[in-house]
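Archive transcription. Copying these from loose printouts into the bound notebook so they stop getting lost. Printout 1 of 2:
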Amino acid sequence: SGFDWKTTQKAYIEITSTGAANSDLFNVIEIYDKSPEDGGRLLTKGSMKTGMPFVSEMTIPQYLTSVYAIQKQANGQISTKIIQLSGDKFSATFSSSNKIALKSAVV
């Protein structure tokens, strides 16, 4: 009986950031099972910057084949990506900006 009753698996995640090599500012990275707007559950969270990737091991449901990543930069910019599982690893690169996010409002 070769049936595997296991409903979870270990997966590894590595998120890198490209951008200003001299930046000492960290970006927050959050990994969800799907978009938080669709009820996504936070799987792991951490920080990264250029030259210092976010690396983590997590336990995920067997059926999960992609995760939803949100990068929150120190300058206020937010980026998202859907990352596909390849073997037992999720990996992606976010590019970071040195620019300050400007917010304007009509008064």
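Printout 2 of 2:
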Amino acid sequence: ARRTLSVFGGSQGARQLDRTVAEMIGELRQRGDLQVLVATGPAHVHEVAPTEHAAGDLLVRVVGFIERMDLALAASDVAVARAGSGTIAAPRPPATRVTSVEVSSTS
């Protein structure tokens, strides 16, 4: 069975995320054990869609919008998402909220 990686840029899209995913797909062409679902936002499908046909063994599906985000998340082994109302919504009142993450190296 293939593992599923889902990438959600949000309804307005996230251009840098879309570009990064397009590059990543090229690097993962030989991964027959993976499938990737990419939701770019309707205005940005053209930036990632050409990679569907050049994905090699990797299965790729690029869409502008996902109507049932709950099902897409349930089908995902890993999800990369920009925070938004359809992906990560804060409960009311907020129990825990991460607003930013800083990664640094001490080498």
